[in-house]
Amino acid sequence: MPLPIVAIIGRPNVGKSTVVNRLSALQDAIVFNEPGVTRDRTYKPAFWRDREFQVVDTGGLVFDDDTEFLPFIREQAMAALAESSAAIFVVDGMMGLMPSDEEIATWLRQQSVPVLLAVNKCESVEQGAALAADFWSLGLGEPFPISGIHGNGTGELLDELITHLPPANEIEESDEIKVAIAGRPNVGKSSLLNAFVGETRSIVSPISGTTRDAIDMVVQHGDQTYRLIDTAGIRKKKQVEYGPEFFGINRAFKAINRADVVLLVIDALDGVTEQDQKLAGRVADEGRGCVIVVNKWDAVEKDSYTIYDHEKLVRDRLHFTEWADIIFISAKTGQRVEKILDMVNIAAEQQKRRVTTSVINEVLEEAVGWHSPPTTRQGRQGKIYYGTQVSSRPPAIALFVNDPALFNDNYRRYIEGQFRKSLGFTGTPIRLFWRGKKTREVERVTANRATRVKEF
User: Fold this and answer.
1) Rounded to two decimals, what is the model's pTM?
2) Side-chain half-sphere of 88: how many Cα atoms within 13 Å?
3) Where are the beta strands (DSSP E) in 284-401?
4) What is the DSSP string of 149-202?
5) Mean pLDDT, rounded, for 94-121
6) Least CB-packed of 115, 219, 228, 304 within 10 Å?
7) How far apart are the first and last CA of the chain?
């Protein structure tokens, strides 16, 4: 069975995200002193003693208000509870027992999930028991006084929690592919995640900035497991004020960094914007696999040439990611969505691919035979002695040459193009390191100095 899930439930501003950060190994849930910062349900890995599990952060529950996002937040919290092995109900010890706490407790008592009561903001151990005493009346068993900030009392809470989780030997590990869904605001990232999952996993709204955190969801397709990560829309830095959106964009960049493959979502109606170009450049710089997903294709008026014209426009604007596959989809109707994961598989496989030194040198020999390295006015010509792959994710190849300065950008692009033509590497960037005699001599001297210092 997969990792068990523990839902964190409570009204707004009781410190749920702070508690999630305390329990989670990632500790990156957005914490900001403003109600409604957390909207979707966000999953974070956690462990205690011999148990691994996932904590799912949820938005603040309000039952008697249907304004803005509150109905969607309720829907997300209920969905989180339905898939959980246990729940932690977080209340505010400093504020005391509130009528909304009683409403939530009444609802939780009607569920079939074991519920633990965590009285947060009990920073003082001496006052913790007194602050927690008021919450016995909720009828959810013993209230545990804790501090999400300092960690006081969380050990006792977790000791009780793991009694409700399955034994460690029943949990199966999976070799999952991490897929970040990134793009500008309102290009359909959350709709795409929901299309993959087949349920309302992320709140979809025409309001820009609806998604604020990086939202993980594990899905199975055939024999392969995927961790899909929906991210906040990334706008230009100068347009972003300090606050929830600022933190959300930072989480989006972190999601790109921890992903194996990035789905770069582009609005078919807007075309490729300057911000899309910057995001594509960031994905390439981070060395992540990429699939370019052109969404809202159903809204485009088409003839038999439209898709080819659009693909050429996308390729021209994103020429520095020409190695990435492009797919035209509609997250709203589901058109071609199922084909995206096949492209993800290819990109993930190519990103971790290793090629033998003999094959690399065969490609180099053929490439140099067709197009010799450039010669300077002084008659100096570049020479490539040999190449070898030094790492993967992304594939990196070191080329040993007489002098890297003798190889201009055009020739370097030519060599990369020959590697792609002969070896593929579809869906992933590749790194070429041009290493000359001087470079190797500096590295040798540096290594010798380091050895002498260590011996001394």
Assistant:
1) 0.62
2) 33
3) 289-295, 325-328, 384-391, 396-401
4) TT-TTHHHHHHHHGGGS--GGGPPP--PEEEEEEESTTSSHHHHHHHHHTS--S
5) 89
6) 304
7) 54
Pick from 68-82, 121-135, 218-232, 310-324 the range whose average pLDDT is largest.
310-324
Output 102 or 76, whichever has higher pLDDT: 102
Query: Diameter of the chain by CA atoms?
Result: 90
Nearest-angstrom CA–CA distance, 169 and 172:
8
Domains belonging to the chain, first-starting first, are 5-170 (3.40.50.300), 177-351 (3.40.50.300), 357-447 (3.30.300.20)
Structure tokens at 149: 């900030």
- 123: three-class secondary structure by DSSP: coil
Annotation: binding site:
10-17, 57-61, 120-123, 183-190, 230-234, 295-298
Question: Which range (93-102, 157-166, 200-209, 318-327) has the least confidence?
Answer: 200-209
Among 59, 58, 61, 139, smallest CA distance to 100 is for 61
Find the length of the chain: 456
pLDDT per residue as tens digits for the range 172-230: 655 789 898 888 888 888 888 888 877 554 434 443 444 444 567 778 888 888 888 87
Of 443 and 395, more confident:
395
For the annotated binding site for GTP, the residues are 10-17, 57-61, 120-123, 183-190, 230-234, 295-298
Distances 18 to 13, 21, 90, 121, 321 between C-alpha atoms, Å: 10, 5, 11, 10, 39
